[in-house]
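Suppose you are handed only these lines of text.
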Amino acid sequence: MAAQRTPDGPPPPPAVQKLRIQYARRGRLRYSSTRDFGRALERALRRSGVPMAYSAGFHPHPKISYANGAATGAASEAEYFEISVTEQVDPDSVATALNEALPDGLDIVSVVDAQPGALADRLQASRWLLEFPGVEPADLERAVAGFMAQEHVEVERMFKKGLKSYDARGPVERAVTGVSEDGCAILTMVVRHTTPAVRPDDVLSAIAAATSFAPPQSPKATRLAQGIWSSETESVADPLAAD
Amino acid sequence: MSGESIFSALEPLLEKVSKPIQYVGGELNSTVKDWHVGGHGPGGEDLTVRWALMYPDAYEVGVPNQGVMILYEVLNERPDALAERSYAVWPDMEALLREHGLPQFTVDGHRPIGDFDVFGLSFSTELGYTNMLTALDLAGIPLHAADRTDEHPIVVMGGHASFNPEPVADFIDAAIVGDGEEAVLAATDIISEWKARGKPGGRLEVLRRLAATGGVYVPAFYDVDYLPDGRIQRVAPAEAGVPWRIDKHTVMDLDAWPYPKKPLVPLAESVHERMSVEIFRGCTRGCRFCQAGMITRPVRERSITGIGEMVEAGLAATGFEEVGLLSLSSADHTEIGEIAKGLADRYEGTNTGLSLPSTRVDAFNIDLANELTRNGRRSGLTFAPEGGSERIRKVINKMVTEEDLIRTVAAAYGAGWRQVKLYFMCGLPTETDEDVLQIAEVAKRVIETGRQVAGHNDIRCTVSIGGFIPKPHTPFQWAAQLGPEETDARLYKLRDAIRADKRYGRSIGFRYHDGKPGIVEGLLSRGDRRVGRVIEQVWRDGGRFDGWSEHFSYDRWMAAAETGLEGTGVDVAWYTTREREESEVLPWDHIDSGLDKEWLWQDWLDAIDETEVEDCRWTPCFDCGVCPQMGTDIEIGPTERTLLPLTVLGSGKQDMLRS
Ligand code: B12
Ligand code: SF4
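From them, the structure of the protein bound to cobalamin can be written out as follows.
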């Protein structure tokens, strides 16, 4: 009796097209993790009928790759992933269909044909917005100025392999404070992607370490953009724009 | 204002708790309705009936629960009603809610539970009782029904535990017994009418009207008297117009109730990452330990076409990659072969998995499992022989021989399955060490046979065993539960017997639940109103999430029982390890499951005699009492209809293709 079963039938159809997709994680769904999004996405892809390419074997997986997800709890206007499909599809129609199938708050922003090169290479920096309810704009401005005046500020964070210490000041290319329309103190900053990644909460710990700044509650962080960093124009360019 | 969302106050707390996603709602197919959907009457009467439905366990356990999902949808489809969901909050969130003066809330609209008309709790296990007290307390609802006013929701329990609601009689206003679909609508009608008239007579009056239907149990309307020795003398209505016995509800035509039509798709990971379609309700195999089988009679099948439509609609609404065909014994559906083949054909090539909680021990079950995994991985199969020896299987009426079992697992390993899980119980009536030690012999034969048919040694078998808990409305309701020390001693002997033989050691896994939690479950299952004080004391001492071993404390329960039962003359052993006599009034006798108490007693005597009883689906009715008592009948096929081939899943693709 054959003990070793192999799937019968033809191998899965090959991928013919790769799509790059930008999505936003908004409102209360900012508490979903990248894994949570992964499950929601796979279900949305099935619901909407996107002709996904699958890996071979007894446990076929749809071909999806994620890049540089924001930490759970942060909102984002600019998260990215790639999918491979087995039939030529129109990216705009995919965007509409996927949006329909995803829960509100996980929203597709744009879908384009993938260009050559790795998506990860195009995600060089992020622009962040941090909102500080209950903080005086002047206090925030002073703290940020104090922080930016430093060259290095070491912070520590727990990783799977243990506590790590790294510089959270160097990767911060720009930091501008201001006041939002509803009167809340805000900080907009551009942070280059380094290893380990410097997250908004690292910057906050660094600001606290460099000054005596202590907000009454943690700020709400939103990633506004991710993309190609240009030191000349000091800007973050759309990673999905055609070269 | 009533019904206002507390989300903005909650938001800063979400940063500080574990898994905040469980509190935010917004699942695909969830619903938030306008607080005043039902509008107002001419005199400004509020015409909306609002249900907060709670599964009193963690979100990850509660969110896939079918019962709550069904009632949520059934109620929300009604134009003048709304239903929202709530789950038990973890201790970190509980502490923060208390610190900030925030109430228990619904995950849909983040509305305070106290603002709803009805607070409905679903108990599939008694271990959720302490979590109910946390929720009531956080909601600002007095723990005791007697202390509530017209300002508070009516607290209603449902689910299997409501077949003996006595231990929580002090805390609930009402219990609805049996199937909920029609019952919640009937209750909504009564509440709606009462609200439209400006709530005449207040809370007491609406409870009276509910009780008068004969299908809603209101504990406050019944008096319990005790004999000097602690047994119950009688349970009787305390006022006129209240029935002596409360009937269970039975939905007869499952095809008329194809719920959930749009199953919830949580973002967070849950214990059940698939959608389920209930293929029939009830079970008449007559396993004597099985409360679920006894209380859900008679068998009512959903038709093959009804099942096909629910699978299709559910997949289209959710995108789940797996469908479970759910019931108490799914292989028993009269058309299961056709269903399995029809669905496997229909979803071939779509990467949709089909599964069947398989417990029946026979070769047919293997054919089914093979069909459902045609092109998928064959990792593990589960069987539940429940008893180790032939003798004890006769006692519990699990009609399967050791030869059947060996033949079945041989077929499984032969078809490429690698792992077989076997479920057993310990502490069954009349059981001795020998009965349990026979499990080790069975497991060894399973491996021996498996190695032969598979032709290699890379196969495993896991023995999973837990203590037996006698349950109300079963022939074993009179039985003595085995004490925790005795249970553990027997389990250790079995473990040693399995491990002793080095030839099998690594191939046989052994998993067991120790005896202590079972005693608490036994206390809550067969308890009466006096047990309420124990539950309250445990909760006051910090008891929460008793179904979770890391939160459960046996010592806390025993200490609370010491104080809670003081002066009653009875103790934990009296409730658990004591055998009852035929004449004893049982705390749940006034809850009518349809089963004839005399028939149950006869079945108990048959059990001790090792006499088996057949299944009434295939042999004549054996007069368990349900059908005549409830005016029901078994509803089974075959319908001889077939599943039509159909373009399934992803029909939206056409619109995306590049021309
Ligand atoms: C799927 C399932 C699970 C899943 C999912 C659980 C979940 N979150 O739903 C998992 C694997 C996690 C699970 C775990 C357990 N399960 Co389980 N499970 C089942 C199973 C197979 C299906 C349940 C189901 O969906 N039924 C269908 C729905 C529609 O029925 P329902 O929930 O009873 O709801 C109806 C009525 O009760 C009523 N109703 C329900 N709630 C309310 C509330 C109100 C207010 C009202 C008015 C009415 C009402 O209306 C509903 C519609 O008619 C059943 C067997 C079965 N077929 O019922 C066992 C079963 C319910 N489980 C059981 C047990 C013992 C457990 C565990 C305790 C096992 C363990 N030792 O760990 C745990 C407990 C987990 C927990 N804390 O809840 C037993 C219950 C024992 C009993 N009553 O005799 C059952 C009956 C299996 C059995 N044969 O022993 N289980
Ligand atoms: S009354 Fe007869 S037919 Fe109905 S469930 Fe009981 S044994 Fe079966």
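What can we learn from it? Chain A has two domains: 17-121, 123-237. Chain A touches chain B through 49 residues (CB under 8 Å).
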